[in-house]
Design goal:
Blueprint lengths: L5 E6 L4 E8 L3 E9 L5 H5 L7 E5 L3 E2 L18 E3 L2 E2 L12 H7 L3 E4 L3 H11 L2 E6 L5 H10 L9 H4 L5 E2 L8 E5 L6 H5 L4 E6 L11 E4 L5 E3 L43
Parallel strand pairs: 3-4, 4-6, 5-7, 6-8, 11-12
Antiparallel strand pairs: 1-2, 1-9, 2-8, 3-9, 10-12, 11-13, 13-14
């Protein structure tokens, strides 16, 4: 993407920022939030908990050490968009495989640089997370704001189905680490890497309300088992339209329903 391309970030409250586009030429809706980490932007991008969110980095200089194939938390990036104050024009790290801009471009994720992330973060701190839209396709301000306000948000959508593996698989199928126990860990990659120690075998299972033999933790020493249904995916989930960012009606999974929050009873006066 040419460096002269413009981008816009619009919030549902009528606030907007214009800046320089990087990553993919695309438009996406999402919940705008922020992250205060000084490093680890690749782990943030691939964290399944950021599904359908537009993440703002508060640290001003992002992208200086590039992106590699190892420092990921799941099978692909899950953010809807990425907001930075300054995108580093130089990548300096021996482990880097590509630039941050190229990485986002390959995965169809739009980014915007040159945003006053301090002002944006202060607004989010006061108002809370806001629905928004990010576009690198030259949208007019009025259209961007209208689409940000029209996005229905995250309520009532089951994103676990979209970031979850479709089938169970063994993390170390060649069994090189002398397995004696079986543990399942969920959608993040780094805990699995930390568990690459002798006597452990890792089996990753799909998210499911049903407990099956493939989603249990078993101890070879005592034979006891414990349920451990897990999530995070190898096949691409259904794509979302930018207009509403919800699963299409033809999606086999369909929109999910979040359980209501339990009501906490107040203690009686004494």
């Amino acid at each position: 993407m040419a460096a002269s391309m413009k981008a816009i970030l619009a919030l549902e409250d009528g606030t907007f920022w214009q800046g320089t586009a990087f990553g993919a030429r695309a438009t996406a809706c999402g919940e705008v939030c922020f992250n205060t980490s000084m490093t680890g932007y690749q782990e943030i991008l691939t964290d399944p908990s950021y599904k359908a969110q537009i993440v703002t980095m508060t640290y001003p200089h992002i992208g200086n050490y590039g992106v590699n194939a190892v420092d990921v938390e799941s099978w692909q990036p899950h953010v809807s968009g990425f907001v930075v104050r300054e995108l580093s024009p130089i990548v300096s790290n021996w482990r880097a495989d590509s630039t941050l801009a190229d990485y986002l471009g390959r995965h169809g994720i739009p980014g915007i640089a040159g945003v006053d992330t301090r002002a944006l973060t202060k607004r989010l701190r006061v108002r809370g997370a806001l629905n928004g839209l990010i576009s690198t396709e030259g949208l007019a301000v009025e259209e961007a704001l209208a689409r940000a306000r029209a996005w229905p948000g995250l309520a009532g959508v089951d994103y676990v189905k979209e970031v979850s593996h479709r089938q169970a698989f063994d993390w170390d199928p060649e069994d090189r680490q002398s397995a004696r126990f079986r543990l399942a860990f969920g959608p993040h990659e780094s805990p699995r890497r930390r568990r690459r120690t002798p006597r452990f075998r890792r089996r990753i299972s799909p998210s499911s309300p049903m407990i099956s033999a493939s989603s249990t933790t078993s101890c070879a020493a005592c034979g006891s088992t414990a349920s451990a249904p897990m999530s995070s995916p190898p096949g691409p989930p259904p794509r979302r339209s930018c207009a509403d960012n919800r699963p299409a009606s033809s999606c086999p999974t369909g929109p999910g329903t979040r359980p209501p929050c339990p009501t906490r009873s107040k203690p009686s006066a004494t």
